[in-house]
Amino acid sequence: MLESLKPGMTIPEVVRCPDGHFQQAVYGLGPYIADYPEQLLLPCVVQDWCPKCTAQADGLDDEICGCHSWEHTDMLVEAFKLGVLWDEYGLVGM
Fold first, then answer.
1. I need a labelling partner for 64 at 20 to 30 A (CA). Which of 7, 13, 22, 42 fits?
2. Do 56 and 63 touch, CB atoms closer than 8 A?
């Protein structure tokens, strides 16, 4: 089942990094263990806010909300300043 991934995990591939330099990369699969704050930082969510839905932090039990998506997060990051993202939407802007 994972045989098609083997070349990428054994043969280095030249990739362009975000800084513009080229490096050889070998990919790997494995568990990612993180504490609660880091688990929330990965999806760009503030602590005590839901990482799965768009509910407000003080209404997680009584609201029907949509699911978080990268498209929704990107739209909010483009539209609002970092303080508004943190306070009103529970998002960490970059």
1. 42
2. yes
